[in-house]
Amino acid sequence: MDTAQRGERFGLGHAPGLRKLTPKMLETIEVAETHRFTSEMLPGQVLAAFKAAAPHLGLRPSVVHAIDWLFRFTDAVDWQPSSRPIVWPSAIMQQQELGLGPSQVKNLNRHLVELGLVVMKDSPNGKRYGRRDSKGRIIEAYGFDLSPLASRFTEFRAVAEEGREERARLQALKRRATIARNGIRQLLDTAVEQGISGEVWETHRVASAAASRGIAGRNRSIEMEMAVAGLERVLSDMRRYLEVVLDARRTKAAQGSIEPVNFGPKGLENWPHITTTNQLQNLEDTVFAARKSSRSPVLPGKDRPSEGAGNHLNSSGTTNEQQRPGKVRMDTGSLLKITPMELIKLAPRLKTYLNNQTPTWPEIVDAADWLRDEMGISKFIWGDACLVMGREQAAIAVAVVSAKPLDHFRSTPGGYFHGMISKAKIGELHLARTIWGMRGGGERRPKCGRDHLPPSPDPRSYV
Fold first, then answer.
1. Which of 71, 127, 208, 269 is the 20 to 30 Å CA partner of 370?
2. Using one digit for the tens of pLDDT, what is the confidence trace for 373-422?
3. Both ends of the chain: CA-CA distance in Å?
């Protein structure tokens, strides 16, 4: 090999054993050389700021662990204005304590420099070493220069603060998404209970599922905000559509309950025809036929007529129950011979929502409205119950449900209450019997023989 070749190899070209420098490494070296400590810093503060900012800078855990390990070898005196924080752990120690091989350690150190976290200060012989004076100040050192971390201290704190704010925004958006999802589940349950289906509702259901899946994997608040806003719009559309359908049903039911009955010869199928004769028909048979064939719901706030014995219409158009002398109902809203005070004793959960020790039926109805919300009974089902049973009897039904233990229900209290409404619509709900059983200490009694039958309640109190 001639002199020119040796010069090219060892003078102008790449010299063996020297570290290769990349543009990013040169930038880090320049930062370290230009940095000057203007005030005393504590290494613990710098390390804490770096660790807080690392997740938001996208740094791997191995990088954070390596920096944390290097800070074990620095002292507070190294971070004073007249000093420089250099540490010199050997390559063998770094391999052993970090659990890495020689090549992995070299790649890690190069990566730390390219990230702008440290600078390698090499000695003439390529070894890491250092010396301190009697006061602990560094006299001479070759190894890892931690000055770039000190120069980025303000940046680390700002990134960490922005990360905390971003995390808070994401948590708030996740709470909004959870609330929206729960609202959609409630609407879907209500639709099932009310028997609402069809192409339009199916479109809403599919849209809600797609919007819910669109939230998964969103790690930025901007993207999350758009996804949550879309989910909330779907929830609003579903609620609006459900309210329109249920309002239409209520309007139709209310109109059907106040429409005059057509007694013409071509009227309803099961109603009696009026013939041209002066002899009146048996009106008791007529009333029973009408009840069996055309049962209409009751407007909210109105009393549902009792279906027990003794309420047949007479020739004057009134009921025998109303004409009985001395018959006084306990209040204007109940047909079940129960007072508000007794209802509170049977269903003590109502007390939480009552401000009066001697409440009236309107106050009982308001308390039941609050109680049904606590038990998870939707507003739509409550409105349906008020239409079918009347507000007071609906409140009594809610009180009955609240008095039952949780293990009594096969599904939920809302599903049980919906079943009571279904029975009321076909005339098979008997709240008076239930209350009679609750007065006796239990709603269900064991069957007795014919010679030991318990006393029967007044049949006029059945519903």
1. 208
2. 888 898 888 888 888 888 888 999 999 999 988 888 888 888 898 889 98
3. 115
> What is the rounded average pLDDT for all residues in the chain?
75
Query: Does residue 237 contact residue 204 with C-beta atoms inside 8 Å?
Result: yes
* Neighbouring residues of 334: CB distance < 8 A, sequence distance ≥ 6: 361, 392, 393, 396
Q: What is the pTM of this model?
A: 0.44
Residue with tokens 């807080």: 52
What tokens appear for 198 in the block? Answer: 């069809």
User: What gap in Å lies between CA 89 and CA 72, rounded to an integer?
Assistant: 10
pLDDT for residue 283:
40
Residue 114: C-alpha distances to residues 108, 122, 194 (Å): 10, 16, 64
Domain ranges of the chain: 17-151, 165-258, 264-294, 340-461
CATH of 17-151, one of 1.10.20, 3.80.10, 3.40.50, 1.10.10: 1.10.10
Residue type, 304: R
- Alpha-carbon gap, residue 22 to 120, rounded angstroms: 13
β-pair partners for 194 = none
How far is it, in rounded angstroms, from Cα 58 to Cα 53?
Answer: 9
